[in-house]
Amino acid sequence: MSNPLLSVRDLHTTFDTDDGTVRAVDGVSFDVDAGETVCLVGESGSGKTVACESITKLIPTPPGEIAAGEVRFDGEDLTSLPDKQLTEYRGGRIGHVFQNPQGALDPVYTVGDQLVEAIRLHRDVPKSAARERAHSLLDRVGIGDVEDRIDDYPHQFSGGMKQRVVVAMALACDPDLLIADEPTTALDVTIQAQVLRLLDELQDERGMAMLFVTHDLGVVAEIADRVVVMYAGKVMETGDVYQVFENPSHPYTKALLECLPGRGRALETIGGTLPDPTDPPDGCRFHPRCPHAVPACEDGDQPAFEDVGGSHQASCVLYGADYDEPELAEANDD
């Protein structure tokens, strides 16, 4: 089996604050293979965005710090690279689409100028060639009347059009991996569907991998090959999208899916709140909110991952050797 395009191992990202050290990402591991879509899911505050920003060291330093772990992209450990060398990857081989397109675009430059700058940062081409490429990218992402609109400013575009411009910028240098951080959150459902369809088409055309951050499980079901479920800086469950949706194994994943409409049952909510990131509980991070928690959930570190079928794994003591099948079945059926 070939090595993954992206391999994140035991990643720890912290932030020093007046209230203490926030352990935003606390020992996270996952892989993204070439050409596949992996979705990071979980409630707001689970550490999804920080995990993605840590890949190319976009976190503000200080107060942020990658305290430990390894991020290998095509065999290269990005955490050990100085910023000058990292530029080859950041915006070059790894593109980012952020959830707030207005914040990702400079209001005092035209979208064409910003695209040209992004292209020339990574490619040694004359300005005329870069502008031609910018024109082609805007046309491909569905910006109409490109000849006129290429010289417009961000405020002259709607929210959906601004997001298409941001997608064009992320694709400017034909990245091998696109990191999309909740790119449709601020858009209405019609525009959201258009942007998702665009990303799917572009991924097929270019054969690129995609790491997609969302809390919307409906989006996950539509686009994901594999799913990584995060909670309070930890990974709770990981597996093929069909495995996770058909057989959610961690109580947190089950709770998330019960909040999803259209499953033939009344909508549920998850009781309680995320733990204090400066003082997280011992044991499983989810145990204070978990209806199936047992004393073993409250001690030590996050439970080890247990195989629950194929490549499907869950970080839950109920799958350990100390718990028999009847107990597990009863917990999963509740």
Keywords:
alpha/beta, Rossmann fold, 8-stranded mixed sheet, 12 helices, 12 strands, 24% strand, globular
What features would you describe in this structure?
The chain is α/β, with parallel strands linked by helices and 334 residues long. It has two domains: 6-228, P-loop containing nucleotide triphosphate hydrolases (Rossmann fold, 3-Layer(aba) Sandwich); 233-333, no CATH class. The protein contains twelve helices and twelve strands. The protein has helices at residues 48-55, 83-86, 101-104, 111-122, 127-140, 146-149, 159-170, 189-206, 217-223, 241-246, 251-258, 325-333; strands spanning 6-17, 20-32, 37-41, 64-73, 76-77, 94-97, 177-181, 209-214, 226-231, 234-240, 305-309, 312-315. The strands form two sheets. Strands 6-7-8-3-9-10-12-11 form an eight-stranded mixed sheet, with helices on both faces. Strands 2-1-4-5 form a four-stranded antiparallel sheet. The longest helix has 18 residues, at 189-206. The protein is globular.
Radius of gyration: 21 Å
In CATH, the homologous superfamily of the largest domain goes by the name: P-loop containing nucleotide triphosphate hydrolases
Estimate what percentage of residues fall within beta strands. Answer: 15-25%
Per CATH, what is the topology of the largest domain? Rossmann fold
CATH architecture of the largest domain: 3-Layer(aba) Sandwich
